[in-house]
Amino acid sequence: GGGGAGVTGAPAADVLEKADGATEVNFWHSMDGTNGETLDALITEFNAANEGEIEVKGVYQGDYDTTITKYKAAVQSDSTPTMVQIYDIGTQFMIDSGAVVPTQAFIDRDEYDVSDLQPNIAGYYSIDDELWSMPFNTSMPVLYYNKTLFDAAGLDAEAPPLTLEEVGAAAETLSKVNGGPAEFGFNAAIYGWFLEQEIAANGGLYCGPENGRAGERAAEYSFDDDDAVTFVDWWKDLVATGVAGNTGRATADAQNAFKTGTIGMTLESTGALRGMQQAADEQGFELGVGFYPRIEDNDSGPIIGGASLWISDEGHSDEEMEASWQFMQFLAQPDTQATWHTGTGYFPISRGALDEPKDVAWREQYPQFDVAVQQLAATKLTPATQGCSAGSMPQARKAAEDALEGALLGGDTQTELTEAVTELKREVDNYNNSVQ
Ligand SMILES: O=P(O)(O)OC[C@H](O)CO
User: Fold this and answer.
1) Angstrom distance (rounded) from CA 117 to CA 108
2) How far apart are the C-alpha atoms of 165 and 146, rounded to whole Å?
């Protein structure tokens, strides 16, 4: 498997050839809803342009957690798909899996020009100056707010709140329990990503040493610091006073609640923007997007999120890997990224995409599609804003979610978070021992 190997030498016996001679690329992904439709259209466009040569078969596998779980099983049973979309926090696991070929191998061989790739985004997926996977759907979390409700509550709809305190105050004014126009002033999914992001946005580390970014593997988690407690307590108070709703863990449920037009504010990925925009247009409310709120104004910022594309080499022919690389290049092109950005809300990974006429016109009509781009530009690249790189991050996110949920349902915040961190220590040690 991978490990910096060249791109040739895979067994030719496994070539998946269709009757017409086209090489088939089995591509697992986690895009559904509006984003799934946009991806399907791109796959169709690519297949039409490569008829008889390459046929990409996109297969939705469930959410990111489900896809990485299925991929782990596929590695065990030697049945990986040629290409797979894996979320940000699966990066270290994928490198360690030994089942993938680094994108850098193709880049070096073809002298592929990477200057169009947004450097912060490429930086997230580069380890020791090697780009392991091709960024595709890149995001940051933002604050979504209902401008129509802001107006009805007498709040300034053009000045979204920036700090937790300001979000809390606006939520109180908006909420029905205080005589406001919204069912709930605030509601967000119990999603560990939001805690990871809040810690980074205040300049803190999620794991140590140095978020696993200084050449040493992460050895412990630290998401029980003061900022984490402040954030969870803030959220907990809003729920306890009936100002915030609690739709549980599923991000789809929190999105759907906001889409009905009855929630003042929510936290979500910019990758949910197109779907949010469509819902707002249908429901007849005006959608606002602001920066992800932080405890105090500072020059840190959220972490790049989303997912990237990986090519498996175990059990795949050169033709299949080559076809995957072709498809990756198509997805990274400025015009494709403009379609992707405007069709979803994810950042374009291509710098040139923002100059494509289609993208320029779209942002003029919907300036909300520019907010995450500005937020990324305003974020200083530090170990904090690079986020925690650790093979056990998927488990850590789940543990953080358990703690967050426990606290929102009445548990003591510090106790919940510290217990999660303590229990994860074993998980971290096991992982690190297994890859030594
Ligand atoms: O919802 P996405 O695609 O922006 O991804 C959010 C997180 O980064 C996934 O780990």
Assistant:
1) 15
2) 18
Q: What is the DSSP string of 230-262?
A: HHHHHHHHHHHTTSB----S-HHHHHHHHHTT-
Question: Hey, which of 32, 193, 197 would you mutate to test ligand 1's pocket, going by the most ligand atoms within 8 Å of its Cβ?
Answer: 193
Calculate the CA dihedral of residues 150, 151, 153, 154 and round it to 10 degrees. 120
Please identify, by atom number, the ligand 1 atom nearest to the C-alpha of residue 307: 3
pLDDT value of residue 6? 41
Ligand 1 center to 306 CA (angstroms): 4
- For the stretch 273-328, pLDDT in tens is 999 999 999 999 999 999 999 999 998 999 999 999 999 998 999 999 999 999 99
Residue with tokens 């169709």: 44
Please list the helix, strand and coil fractions of the chain in percent, rounded to the nearest 5, in that order.
50, 15, 35
Residue nearest to atom 3 of ligand 1 (CA): 306
C-alpha atoms less than 13 angstroms from C-alpha of 303 in its C-beta half-sphere:
29
Q: Which residue, judged by its Cα, is nearest atom 4 of ligand 1? A: 306
Q: Where are the alpha helices (DSSP H) in 77-162?
A: 91-97, 103-110, 119-124, 147-152
- Residues 178 and 189: beta-carbon distance below 8 Å: no
ipTM above 0.95, yes or no: yes
Q: 308-317 as b/e, with b when 16 or more CB fall inside 10 Å?
A: bbbbbbbbbb
Count of residues for the chain? 436
Mean pLDDT of the chain: 94
The residue with tokens 């880049």 is: 107
Q: Is the CB of 197 under 6 A from ligand 1?
A: no
Bridge partners (DSSP) listed for residue 269: 141
Q: Report CA-CA distances (Å) from 56 to 16, 22, 326.
A: 12, 10, 10
This prediction's pTM = 0.94
Q: Using N-to-C axis directions, what is the helix angle for 318-332 and 33-49, rounded to 10°?
A: 120
Give me the amino acid identity at 117: L
Among 101, 68, 79, which Cα is nearest to 14's?
79
Provide the pLDDT for residue 12.
41
pLDDT-derived band at 124 (thresholds 50, 70, 90) equals: confident
